[in-house]
Give the backbone structure.
Amino acid sequence: MAIPQFFLLLVSLFHHAFAQDFPIGVTSPLATSCGPDNANVVCLDRYASVLPYHFFRRFSGGSTDISFAQTNVPHDTSFDLVGNADFLVFDQERGLELLGSNPTYDKVFNVSEAVHEAPVYVPSLNKLFLSILAPPAGVLQPQLVVDLNQDPPTLSEYFSDPPVYAPNGGTFYNGLIYWGASGGNRSIGGIEQVPGIQTLDPHTNKTKTLLNNYYGLYFNCVDDLIVDKTGAIWFTDPQYSWFNRLVETPPQLLTASYRFDPKTGAVTMIDDTIVQPNGIAMSPDGKHIYITETGAVTGSIVRGGPPGSPFNQTGPRAIYKFDLIDGGTHVTNKRPIWYAQDWVPDGIKMAANGDIITGSGPGVDIIDPYGVLIARIQTDYIVQNIAFVGEELTEMWLVGQGGISRVRWNLKGQDLAAI
């Protein structure tokens, strides 16, 4: 019996529609619960690199962030697991290894929507020091300390002596906290400050200014910093202090990254190609510098212009890797290794094995030294920075806008106290 022509057409159309919904290469389910039974872990098949049509992730812009977990994938309901997971694993072998047998994620403190930054762990006190950044300019905010000797940990406020205005980045070296002080005003708590580098002795609460100008010009916003084994300080200088009105003076310098030698007072530029250099870290072997680019979040530098720095999804938001040269005093061979899949890569820290950990939107990405995403921690607030704590350095604290959280896993952090 002959098959009617219109029936063959319907079959062809149905086959075409099915092929569009489920292209060759799609495996189902895309997402599965995995890892230890006690943890909320979800594994993605092959990075979800082939999604069934019609999928769609809405545009992020202004102050609105649409995360990967919010991608609409109507033809694979397993993707609904992604949004509720604490840990997303993209590389199952390495991801489950770094999580270990008993990973946990806990939101320990609810805090204000102000930016929380510069977490620094002091081993001798077993305390985590961090800062609050909030406009308007000249309003001195108390800093915070998490006492890890208490169970549960406690959060308290303090002012250093003299107080430091708006520490935006911090690290630990030779018994001292090193702060990138990002704010400036003619009178803050009765003293004058501009962006620069300061130290805090956590045992005496005394602070000291190490750097506050570039040949008479104000730095824009000393954002983040690291100290190498020689005592040299590497730091970034974007323009966020002006965008957020933590300073009174519009930018006087190009955004750039620098190396400062406190033994001599000399400051040398190491890079001026990044639109808004932000986080900075050095590999455990001392061979590479990593700098995060947050140029997708940029505002107006014009006096009288609108404050704030809206997000532009198509703007630059990468992590760059550099090689150290000239006896470890300069960098070369800049190359992008990671393009943030969510918001911008902000604070950055190193694991002992060389993996990179960066706060990025509502969560933290764990990336290998070549820019391959291994796993992600998901939060309900924007994470600005992270710090490893404890004797084994396998506990990590996340700080940001609205929350302070704790992760316990198998990934060990870089031992800053050993530098």
